[in-house]
Design goal:
single chain, 181 residues, alpha/beta, Rossmann fold, 6-stranded parallel β-sheet, 5 helices, 15% strand, NAD(P)-bd_dom_sf, NAD(P)-binding protein, SDR_fam, oxidoreductase
């Protein structure tokens, strides 16, 4: 299952998973999700399978994956937003923008992990992957709300690695540089 699967990194990941035999469920809030994934051009008989769900990730989305495919092997928590560029300076960072970015980037990642972990712990295996940012390993020029949110997700990933590792569930993150979307 991938969240935010209708654009760049996430769409490419979904296509790559499907081309390699995975049964992929894309959860995205974008109403034009089907149009945005039409460019995948999978073979007439794809090895994999794509299914799009236009909702925020909730336990019922994970239940959908389990009931449709019998298991959940990978949760790729990739949905995220940058926030307002006015937030490049602390004095101009808007508290409503901060709340919105934290809601999507932190709370979304938390709920993805929570609901995936509930299924994966029982199966004694699984992988949870978060998209963070290279801003968490360097200093840089990104909005404060975004930078804060990605540091929080790295902390969550580290805690979950310890907690879930004993159940055979791997947790990690990728930290790409800026990708125009």
């Amino acid at each position: 299952m991938l969240t935010g699967g209708a654009s760049d990194i996430d769409a490419f990941a979904a296509k790559l998973f499907a081309q390699n035999g995975a049964k992929v469920i894309i959860a995205d809030v974008q109403s034009d999700l089907h149009r945005r994934t039409d460019h995948f051009h999978l073979p007439p008989r794809p090895i994999g399978h794509l299914r799009q769900v236009q909702r925020r990730i909730q336990d019922r989305r994970v239940d959908t994956a389990v009931s449709a495919h019998g298991k959940l092997d990978i949760m790729f928590s990739n949905a995220g937003i940058m926030g307002q560029l006015a937030g490049m300076q602390i004095a101009t960072t808007d508290s409503q923008d901060l709340a919105k970015v934290l809601e999507v980037n932190v709370r979304g990642a938390f709920h993805c992990a929570k609901h995936a972990a509930c299924v994966m712990i029982g199966g004694k295996k699984g992988v949870i992957i978060f998209t963070t940012s290279n801003i968490t390993t360097t200093f840089g020029n990104a909005p404060h709300a975004y930078t804060t949110s990605k540091h929080v997700v790295v902390g969550l990933m580290k805690n979950l690695t310890v907690e879930l590792g004993g159940y055979g569930v791997w947790v990690n993150s990728i930290s790409p540089n800026g990708v125009p979307t």
